[in-house]
Amino acid sequence: MKNLFCRVRRRDGLLHLALLVLAAAFSLAHRSLACAAEEGAAGPAVPVSGYEVVASFAHDPQAFTQGLCFDQGLLYEGTGLYGQSTLRRMTIDGRDLEVRTLPAYLFGEGVTVFGDRVIQLTWHSRTGLVWDREKLQFAGSFPYATEGWGITHDGASLIMSDGSAILAFLDPETYARQRTVVVTEAGQQITRLNELEYIKGEIWANIWKEDRIARINPATGQVTGWVDLAGLAAQYAPADEDSVLNGIAYDRDKDRIYVTGKRWSRIFAIRVIKK
Ligand SMILES: [Ca+2]
């Protein structure tokens, strides 16, 4: 009787062990299926980088920065607000400042230098301004069908944002719209794309009212990374809600990235680092 009892106990033990192994295997399979489903829906996580300040320079704390770019050793800046909008050009340390004032009915936005032209968007007027680069003289205008926020170019097309998740590619000669991409991260649209800069095959866009820059694949619109600039606005911008990050410029010759914001007291050369 005792032996029989032992055999039963032993058989129960083996059965219990087998059930445990089965349960563990099921749990693992279930978990990997769940992960696969999650990755399928959301995709792998987009990396978030930090930054290191390499150098910093004085920035006009009255400048309501709406556009920033760098060309042949000079910084170009477009500022906004009705009655205060300008196009200005200077060295990175503020020397040789030249300023052009926009008519009071125009609210200046993004700027980019394309060949011998400086192109500046306006916010609600659906009008792009064309300036002669050498003399910084007004040379004409062109229409577009949306609001104007940021502008950059990839050498072949002008690329503009309008505050939505859409980037429009324009023919740089006719200013006609060639194509658009919708900017997404893991299938979700990223809206409020603002100041733009084309950097080594990527479009960088700062997001209005956020401390971060999206790195965008120009072919697909997919966000491939983020640069988190937390800390700069808190230290160098006035405390009002409008004085946000809004300027990215790239010096191709020195492979240097500059950032600033509306009414910030400094402009920064940054290096992207692992967070
Ligand atoms: Ca820019």
What is the name of the CATH superfamily of the largest domain?
A: YVTN repeat-like/Quinoprotein amine dehydrogenase
N- to C-terminal separation?
68 Å
Shape label? globular
The strand order across the widest sheet is 16-17-18-19-1-22-21-20
Strand content: over 45%
Q: Runs with pLDDT <50, length 5+?
A: 1-6, 24-40
Report the sheet with the most strands, covering strand number, pairing sense and barrel closure. Answer: 8 strands, mixed
For this structure, the CATH topology of the largest domain is Methylamine Dehydrogenase, Chain H
Q: Bound small molecules, which ones?
A: calcium ion
Q: Which architecture of the largest domain would the CATH scheme give at its second level?
A: 7 Propeller
Radius of gyration (Å)? 26 Å
Question: How would you describe the overall organization of this protein?
Answer:
The protein is of the alpha+beta class and 275 residues long. It has two domains: 1-44; 48-274, 7 Propeller (Methylamine Dehydrogenase, Chain H). It has two helices and 22 strands. The protein has helices at residues 2-42, 232-236; strands at 48-58, 65-71, 74-79, 86-90, 98-101, 108-114, 117-122, 127-132, 137-143, 151-153, 158-161, 166-170, 177-182, 184-185, 188-189, 193-199, 202-207, 212-216, 223-228, 245-251, 256-261, 266-274. The strands form five sheets. It has an eight-stranded mixed sheet with strand order 16-17-18-19-1-22-21-20. Strands 2-3-4-5 form a four-stranded antiparallel sheet, with no helix packed on it. It has a four-stranded antiparallel sheet with strand order 6-7-8-9, with no helix packed on it. The longest helix is centred in the N-terminal third of the chain and has 41 residues, at 2-42. It starts with a helix and ends with a strand. The site of calcium ion has 8 residues, from strand 2, strand 16 and strand 20.
